[in-house]
Design a protein that fits this description.
Helix content: 25-40%
CATH topology: Rossmann fold
Number of helices: 11
Distance between the termini: 20 Å
Structural class: alpha/beta
Radius of gyration: 19 Å
Strand content: 15-25%
CATH class: Alpha Beta
Number of domains: 1
Mean pLDDT: 94
Length: 271
């Protein structure tokens, strides 16, 4: 509880808030975090039968050699994310009165769905809610309004989205493993807005990192980079890998954020 109290006080005293989030942020909404092969195979039993782990399946080559398999995986995820309601922890963060920005490796669009400002989010690995050409034939991306039905027994997509420009197979605008064809245009625009926000920081900054693991450390490294750059306080929320934060909270996202919010409310009542 001491770490919850410290986190609540640090947030209360800050003017700026950087929210950094990995896959663990979505677990309490019912989303899989694909932690390890067994975690991935629990979400996709058919992948185990095929001998494919997350890294093998999240590869752009499948869109060339077996687009029905590729879109079975991404189509199922698209439908899952569209039908998921962000948990209460998102609301806690959104309602904080700080000048805030989100940096996430998640491609699920849950922060936008929870009402966060689209212009103050970096999705460093892209978003499943946007498409690009598999080739790509151009540097354009477009909103993913496709309906993708998936036969989960055979693990085949019944619908294959096509590029709106050249009619080749389209793919999500997501940075995959071994991916040299990811169109960076949207992410670069987000990064430019993020850099501008960082330049404007003129008071105390707190970083709230949630559910960012070591396996793909993009988010953890960004949290630590910004902490060192600004002398900020890093609150690291992670049930298994909270070490390295200035304030370490070994809980899941929803539980930790609700406890912090409850303490902040008590704190305000005492004033």
């Amino acid at each position: 509880m001491d770490s919850i109290k410290k986190a609540a006080i640090a947030i209360k005293e800050a003017k700026y808030l950087l929210i950094t989030a990995g896959a663990g942020m979505g677990v309490d909404s019912g989303l899989p975090d694909f932690r390890g092969n067994e975690g991935f195979w629990r979400a996709y039993p058919i992948a185990k039968k095929l001998g494919l782990n997350f890294q093998a399946l999240a590869n752009p080559t499948w869109f060339d050699i077996n687009p029905s398999l590729a879109w079975a995986f991404y189509g199922h995820r698209l439908n899952l994310y569209r039908n998921t309601t962000p948990h209460e922890g998102f609301k806690v963060l959104k309602n904080l009165p700080h000048n805030k920005f989100v940096f996430t490796s998640n491609v699920d669009g849950q922060f936008q769905k929870a009402g966060f400002d689209e212009k103050k989010i970096v999705e460093i690995h892209g978003s499943i809610h946007y498409l690009q050409c598999t080739l790509p034939c151009c540097e354009e991306i477009w909103e993913n309004k496709e309906i993708v039905r998936v036969d989960m027994e055979r693990f085949r997509a019944l619908d294959i989205p096509k590029c709106k420009f050249c009619k080749r197979v389209a793919r999500p605008n997501i940075l995959m493993f071994g991916d040299f064809r990811f169109v960076e245009k949207r992410v670069n625009e987000q990064l430019n807005r993020y850099a501008s926000w960082l330049r404007g920081i003129d008071d105390k900054l707190v970083i709230v990192e949630i559910g960012a693991g070591k396996a793909v450390p993009t988010v953890r490294l960004e949290s630590e980079r910004i902490r060192d750059l600004f002398g900020a306080t890093l609150i690291r929320i992670n049930p298994r890998e909270s070490e390295g934060g200035d304030i370490e909270i070994s809980l899941g996202a929803k539980e930790a954020l609700l406890k912090i919010a409850a303490f902040m409310l008590q704190f305000e009542k005492r004033i």
